[in-house]
User: Fold these one by one.
Assistant:
Number 1:
Amino acid sequence: MQVNRLAREREAYTADVLDAQLAKSDLLHDDRAFARVLCLGVAATVGTLDEVINRCLRSPHDIRNNVRDALRISTYEIIFLDKDPYAAVDQGVELVRYVAPPAAGLANSVLRKVVRAKESFPFGDPATDDKALARLYGFPVWIARALVAQMGREAAAAFMKASNAPATVFIGVNAARTDDAAVKREFGREEIALDAVRDPVTGAGIPGCYRLRDARGIASHAARHFFNKGGILVSDAAAQAIAALALPADYPDGFLEVGSGRGTKTILLQSDAVRKWDKQMALTCVDSYEFKDKIVRERAQTYGIELEGAVKADARHLAGTAADKVYGAAFVDAPCSGLGTLRRHPEIRWRMTPADVLKLADLGFELLSEAARHVRVGGQLTYATCTVLAQEDEAVIKRFLESKAGRGYRLQPVTRGDAPRFVYRSPLTAEGCDAHFAAVLRRVE
């Protein structure tokens, strides 16, 4: 409850708050695992939980936030975990009694009604009712409707179900610090299995990308050893595939990264450059947040990553900044709704609005258009997001190609063969990678 409360009050990611709390606890592995399921599950379904709770109250204003935090936990166990109702009610009442003793009686009444409501949940037929489909998987109705319209009902349901599964743990081997053989050897000494990963879109192997069969391996001595020396980093397999895709065929005379964030893609880009050309690129990264600029510099030092420059600037307007140059290639990692990464940050779905999506799509277009001015003729421009909404993906690319800024660019295939694909879109599966999008463009004039 404390984790979800802190995430709510700070508007932080639940996973980050949970990791900080677990680092200070002495819980055993099984208890830690259940805490993760409970905290992330409540964060993922919070809007649906509140709807169920409100159905069982005379008024949504009958309880305070701390009582609602407690009720959400037991409601999640009843509705989504199928926990024994008597145990869930008893534990829920005790939890409410702990935070607000006078509300214990109300909690008992509400949770007993939740148990009865479970019999008719999701209050409709998901096969025909968008609201029932959204409730079934703990999604806002507007997102469920958007997914159904874009994918069809069956695919949308599969996506929402997979979004509630635990995230697979992937690592990337940083070729600027070590090599795959050394990493596999050290993990092997602790009998930790690493599986090489194939790109779900192209079918090719993803360089340096491995899946941990057992997520506990991320806390092993081998993992800590390589984290400390900058030899590995945690990154989704699709993100690693896109970083490799963003490298041009030939060594570029300068590389611009827009939206460097915390530097994960920065590390992947330079690691892949070492794999491809045996040397790093003259890479300039840009982000608008000063604290991220500091983080990327610190991580670059730890991971042995060379930076031509780390520029704090609004990447929609690079004129007059240290990044105002012409590059052989550019990569725009655009801010987006993040709906392809809900397994890692489940609360995003409840914090995002349709208006936010429109604003993010506009921002992506502006970033792409500005980056396009800084790529030489013959150079490559890659645009990427971690969302599944076409508004932020294909629609942005179409708008760009039809604009003055995109007039000299042509979309490039990301796969070969008889039916090449012209955009990269990784599927979300329960044991696979997250859902990412990318498009590769070449400047021809």
Number 2:
Amino acid sequence: MTLPNPAAEDSSPLGRRERMILAALAAALALLLFGLRGGLQPQAPLEQLARRSPELPLALASGRPTIVEFYADWCEACRSMAPAMAALESEHRGDLNVVLLNVDNPRWSPEIDRYGVNGIPQLELFDRDGRSIGRSLGARSRPELATIMTALIEETPLPLLAGVGSLSPLTGGEAQAAPAQTGPRSHG
């Protein structure tokens, strides 16, 4: 009785071809998995903006107008607005600061409280001297963002858009207690 010789099987064309097919299938599956997980794609616009965002105190002291966007990674409106914001931030780099503050990061709790953030996206608008001059609530289109940025850079009045307004203190007997509001992370 003749026993199979493993060395002879390794040298047979059939064994080598099977190994090559298996290696090719493994490589194809690895590439497919790599592609499905995002591959070598650059970061999404929201992540790009957040990473290159200057620190808030530096931005406000820079002598340039500043837009502070309160956002969250899970916020679809924030994500949909991000490509336009990123493109416009690139166009106006050097003339305007764009600062992103994630409402899910406890580091920004004082700013969330200070600016009364109760929904996202919320843009806080600052003049060249770092003074808060307006606010924008809700998602903005590229033309709306461009109009807001142009007004800040050219030091002209903020555009008349729904959800955009200048800030002014209440005076005299007009002030009333504000109703309790839920925070931006409460989903309520």
Number 3:
Amino acid sequence: MAFHRTRLARESREFLPPGRIVKVHGVKMHVYAAGDGDTTLVLLSGHGTSVPSLDFKPLWARLARDHRIAVIERPGYGWSDGSNRPRDIDTLTEESRMALEAAGEDGPYVLVPHSMSGLEAIY
């Protein structure tokens, strides 16, 4: 455990987040945004996508040529801190909205869900 914490602290200094770190309910969340456009495409990851901003890079790199894109990394994924808050659909939706707002990403949005985040997009 001590080795893991030491390595994690070192890696967090070496591998800085490419986007913005924002606070949502006291938890640091990572939002990566790029490109220009009138509408922001919000890429939402499913469960198990360990680093959405990197995992989705082939997709968002092409989309960012013509659109504004934003990738939200939920608590516990990518550069976002973990959270003890419930992981129900209401909480996930609220955190996503708050993270976009805190990162200065204005709507309108087009949600681009992956896997289980489709439930959030429908909700």
Number 4:
Amino acid sequence: MSEERKKRVALIASKGTLDMAYPPLILATTAIAMDMEAAIFFTFYGLNIIRKGRNERLQVAPLANPAMPMPVPNLVGAIPGMTAMATTMMKGMMKKAHVATLGDLLEVAVEGGVRLIGCQMTLDVFGIAAGDLIDGVEVGGAATFLSYAADADVTLFV
């Protein structure tokens, strides 16, 4: 009698802004809540999500972000202070909707067994030490992630 394997979710996080940090973490923590396996490969600016002390400082970039829910022209995002305003607005919207903070989501992910993989090449390129990453992150290259993703039922680049 063979045991059925859990469904597997493989995610890539390559952007390090507040609004782009939530999707991979929400998807991965939801997957483990649904009794699936999950892994997130953090590469390029996505590494900021898992750097110690960085995730609470991530910001929303209003410039060249036409989806921003602001009733003003996109060019207004270039005005000094707009990034801080957009970030405060986003954090307020998340809090009002009772959405967990990034720190809370990362804690759930680590405790729940989400495989958090920091890209070795990106660490090398940006001069980031593995010790600069939060506890629970493994360092691996593209081959590490692709070995996991090869057997995934869902693979997303978010």
